[in-house]
């Protein structure tokens, strides 16, 4: 399984219109493959939407995108509302669950790390040793590394019931030694964003 992580930075105050346009057209796109998740940022980099599309492999992605591109109802007419777009192909860690419709949030924290070149295998091993204890506190939504796009990138996504629960769980994880794993020396930069699900997102 691979995941295409698409991030669009929108013009200020255009988010409600973009969500409306996506909601109106999404049924046409999902005739070809399902949406994994759709979030918008609330804390961190603002005016962003993040949508995730699961595929079996790159061949399926190419086929689906070609078919959807022929549909007159897709994509939604967003060009005038978008300042920038990025697309990344992500590979899940062995411990990363398959992305399926569920109610896990409604708060989602996405943490993105840029790693030193060649550090992914070592960091993956360190994380897999710790993740069993961490998910006893709250479920894991995803942990991926980039295959296409910005390289040497680790993305992990955690759902919480509230910002208060997030603070409590993070403090508890440190207190009992469940998290974070070793490997800080392998990380060059870190970014954090708090996201909320759109009404039509399969993950809520």
Overview of the molecule:
This protein has 204 residues and is α+β, with helices and mostly antiparallel strands. The chain has a single domain (2-195), classed as 2-Layer Sandwich (Alpha-Beta Plaits). 27% of the residues lie in helices and 34% in strands. The chain has helices at residues 15-29, 58-69, 120-134, 163-175, and strands at 2-10, 37-43, 48-55, 82-92, 107-115, 142-148, 153-160, 187-197. An 8-stranded antiparallel barrel has the order 1-3-2-8-5-7-6-4. Strand 6 (142-148) and strand 7 (153-160) form a beta hairpin. The longest helix has 15 residues, at 15-29. The chain is globular, with a radius of gyration of 17 Å. The chain starts with a strand and ends in a 7-residue tail after the last strand. The mean pLDDT is 97.
Question: Tags for this entry?
Answer:
27% helix; eight-stranded antiparallel β-barrel; 204 residues; Alpha-Beta Plaits; alpha+beta
In short:
The protein is α+β, with helices and mostly antiparallel strands. It is built from 4 helices and 8 strands.
Write the layout of secondary structure elements.
Blueprint lengths: L1 E9 L4 H15 L7 E7 L4 E8 L2 H12 L12 E11 L14 E9 L4 H15 L7 E7 L4 E8 L2 H13 L11 E11 L7
Antiparallel strand pairs: 1-3, 1-4, 2-3, 2-8, 4-6, 5-7, 5-8, 6-7
Radius of gyration: 17 Å
What is the annotated CATH architecture?
2-Layer Sandwich
- Number of helices, where a helix is a run of at least 4 consecutive DSSP H or I residues: 4
**Mean pLDDT over all positions:** 97
Given this structure, which CATH class is correct? Answer: Alpha Beta
Query: What percent of the residues sit in helical stretches (DSSP H or I)?
Result: 25-40%
How much of the sequence lies in strands comes to: 25-35%
Overall number of strands: 8
- Walk across the major sheet and give the strand order: 1-3-2-8-5-7-6-4
Low-confidence runs of at least 5 consecutive residues: none
What structural class do helix, strand and pairing data support?
alpha+beta
* Distance between the ends: 21 Å
Counted up, domains total 1
Form type? globular
Biggest beta-sheet profile: 8 strands, antiparallel, barrel
